Amino acid sequence: MNYEEVDIRQSKLVLISLFLGLVGIILSICIDNWALLIGITILPLVIISAIYSIKYPVVLFFLIFTVNYYILGITRYIDINGVSFLMDCLMIVLLILICIHSRLLKNIDWKHIWNPLTIGMFIWMLYTLAQIINPSAQPEAWLLSRNLIFNGFIISLITTLLCTNYKTVKILIFLLSIFTLTAVLKALMQKFHGFDSAELRWLNNGGAITHLINTGPRYFSFFTDAGNLGSNMGGAGILFGIIAVQTKNIRTKLYYGIVSIASIYAMFLSGTRGAIIVPLAGLLLYTIICKNVKALITGGSLLIFFYVFFAFTTIGQGNTQIRRMRSAFNPSADASFNVRKENQAKLATYLKNKPFGEGLGLSGVENQKLSLRFTTSIPHDSWYVKLWVETGIIGAVLYLGIIFISIGAGAWILMFKVTDPELKARLSGFICCIFGLILSAYGNAFWGQYPTNIIAFTGLSLVLNGKYINEKILTESIKNKEAI
Q1: Burial grade of 162 (CB within 10 A; 0-12, 13-18, 19 or more)
Q2: By the 8 A CB rule, do 183 and 232 touch?
Q3: Which sign, positive or negative, has the C-alpha torsion 168, 171, 176, 177?
Q4: pLDDT at residue 47, rounded to an integer
Q5: Is the separation of the CB atoms in 121 and 152 below 8 Å?
Q6: Is residue 74 a contact partner of residue 66, using CB atoms and an 8 Å limit?
């Protein structure tokens, strides 16, 4: 079936939907049923959106990418139940649309799915599905952990199939830059205008314990908490910073440079000490990917400068944000760090004979409502510890192994397979951001939260598609030259 035939069928379906909608509106007015009127008015729009999504499923992907960034912030103001279920439904619908699109137009290359991330997350999905037979597992907790089971595989699969051209990469990164600026703006509003009523309610319900501390407020924007904000802003800082440095277009360089600086400032506003590792680790990986002596010297010098500045000087000590970040370079003197180490030692003793872990959804004090047991009496305070407690040492090694192998494969692709400088700049920024985020997840459990999880898997999938995207750029360039 070609595009013309699909367009004809779509046009007919749109006209039918509009006609039925018009009939329904007239009928609902006649019987004075306003609820029916609203439902019938919206229904044709839903049908039309679904019809066009079959032809352009990437549009729905952009919508999911957008909703992912703001959905939990919105729940502070609007009581929305089942957020994760809503996101699951959107992704499943998108996957179905991709299959229909592929069947009708036959222009999706399924061979792209054979990469370390998609294959690895499929294996992870099977492993976590099998966790239901873990002797200490609880069915309800297992069911509520479906994001941990399915999301990595579904997101990597969708991204790999849909994001196969440079234009899509540019759109996603530009969208993320807009989202980042809104997050920075909200953090600035919290700092200079104070918290609004919804944020105060969240603080009064327990958030104040970790966000209103004796050294001053920790700002969280519309994220789940300051830890999530800080790490994401650190990742955005290195992502857009690399693009700004590597791109040749002056406007693009200036815009992404501003976004990068604003992101780093917001990272400091969060007061999240572990977030500093994100841009530093990203910078370290970037010096390797570049294969450039000048970049290696520059990046290495910056790393040394930042380390010396925070670890061996007291410059800026009067600034609350700098003082908090500096404490990350002397963790042994930090009381909360020592408490975490003690908790991990207790968990190690408990998990000694549990290589498959306690069971999904059975770690951290936030899960006490599901089950009161030893593992839910201790905060995990780390994505690594969460994996270890819930899926055992086997699960933790499997998951982290998949992520780091995928990052290594992506770095190799960027070093030896991607030749277009603009594409390489954007994908290098993404992989450095993700590398920093996964390292920072050792000190915070934000990796599995919105919006980090979808952003990270999307970015890593884009990088692993880098070779194919680069080949398309080269093909188009050859065609343009031949046309001239």
Answers
A1: buried
A2: yes
A3: positive
A4: 59
A5: yes
A6: no
Instruction: Give the pLDDT of residue 330.
Output: 67
In which region does residue 334 sit, left (phi positive, over 0), alpha (psi from -120 to 50) or beta (all else)?
A: beta
Q: Are 188 and 222 in contact (CB under 8 A)?
A: no
Q: How far apart are CA 290 and CA 418, in angstroms?
A: 11
349 burial type by CB count under 10 A (0-12 exposed, 13-18 middle, 19+ buried): exposed
Question: In Å, how far from its chain's centre is CA 434?
Answer: 9
Q: Tens of pLDDT along 233-247? A: 999 999 999 999 989
Euclidean distance between CA atoms 104 and 120, whole angstroms: 29
What's the number of CA atoms in the CB half-sphere (13 Å) around residue 367? 24
pTM for the full predicted model: 0.87
DSSP label of 216: E
Nearest C-alpha neighbor of 270 from the set 309, 231, 215: 231
Closest CA relative to residue 176, chosen from 253, 239, 254:
239
Give the count of beta carbons closer than 10 Å to the beta carbon of residue 365.
Answer: 12
* Closest alpha carbon to 421 in 254, 243, 250, 300: 243
Q: What is the pLDDT of residues 160-188, one digit of tens each?
A: 999 999 999 999 999 999 999 999 999 99
Closest CA to 145 of 357, 361, 451: 361
In the chain, domain spans: 1-55, 111-483
Sign of the C-alpha dihedral computed for residues 176, 400, 58 and 171 taken in this order? positive
Give the pLDDT confidence score for residue 123 in this predicted structure.
97
Residues 6+ apart with CB under 8 A from 282: 235, 238, 239, 242, 432, 433, 435, 436
State phi, psi for 217 to the nearest 5 degrees: -70, 145
How far apart (Å, rounded) are the C-alpha atoms in residues 296 and 292? 6
First to last CA, the chain: 32
DSSP for 368-419 reads TTT--SGGGSS---SHHHHHHHHHHHHHHHHHHHHHHHHHHHHHHHHHHT--
- The low-confidence residues of the chain, meaning pLDDT below 70, are 1-52, 295, 311-312, 321, 324, 327-336, 482-484
